[in-house]
Every structure is written in structure tokens, then in C-alpha cells.
């Protein structure tokens, strides 16, 4: 073996190990980002608005704009003013919520 082959082999091994570590980090980051990080709260529908939207008053007296989740829309679950609902709120925008369940 010459010095160039040994150096090339070591370089290849170190690049492969760095790539493997980077891929492991990406997998872990993907798993972290895949977790649903929504705030779930109960609330009461105050007002029905056009296009499947509702004004919802949450337990902590905060009013948000609620949008029907796909399964509620798909199964034609009717939500009326006065209904108690469960909402998922994104931590990025605390003024909008997804209505996921009607009690």
C-alpha cells in the first residue's frame, strides 16, 4: 500500500462517518419535527362565519378563529353556535385554531 491509498482510504472513512452522523441528525430532527406540537384546548363556538369558519371562545377567555378539520368536514359534522369543541392551536399563530372534535 502506498501513502496515497492509505490517505485516500482514511479520507473516505472519515467522510463516510461524517455523512452517517449527519444522516442520523437529520433523522432525529425529522422525528422531532414530525411530532404534533399543538396546544389542545376546549372552547365554545360563539359565531358561525362563512367558509366553515367559526369564532371560538377558549377556556382561558381568548377568542380565536376556528376552522373545521378535514374529518369533521368530510363526515359533515355540524357545528353550531353554543357547541363545545376541542381545538388545536399552533404555537406559531395563537389567533387561529383547528376544530377537531365537537362535544
User: What's the CATH class of the largest domain, please?
Assistant: Mainly Beta
* Poorly predicted runs of 5 or more residues: none
Rg, nearest Å = 25 Å
Q: How many structurally independent domains?
A: 2
Q: Helical percent range?
A: 25-40%
Strand arrangement within the widest β-sheet reads 1-2-3-5-4
Beta strand count: 5
CATH superfamily of the largest domain: Nucleic acid-binding proteins
The 3D shape can be described as elongated
Can you count the helices?
2
| % residues in beta strands | 25-35%
Average pLDDT rating: 79
What is the rounded distance between the termini?
74 Å
Question: What key attributes describe this structure?
Answer:
alpha+beta, 35% strand, 2 helices, 103 residues, OB fold (Dihydrolipoamide Acetyltransferase, E2P)
Please provide a written account of the structure.
With 103 residues, the chain is an alpha+beta fold. It folds into two domains: 35 residues; 64 residues, OB fold (Dihydrolipoamide Acetyltransferase, E2P), CATH 2.40.50. Helix content is 36%, strand content 35%. The protein has two helices and five strands. The protein has a five-stranded mixed β-barrel with strand order 1-2-3-5-4. A hairpin with a 6-residue loop joins β4 and β5. The radius of gyration is 25 Å and the shape is elongated. 12% of the residues are buried.
Present the secondary structure layout.
Elements: H1 3-34, E1 39-49, E2 53-58, E3 63-68, H2 70-74, E4 84-89, E5 96-102
Parallel strand pairs: 3-5
Antiparallel strand pairs: 1-2, 1-4, 2-3, 4-5
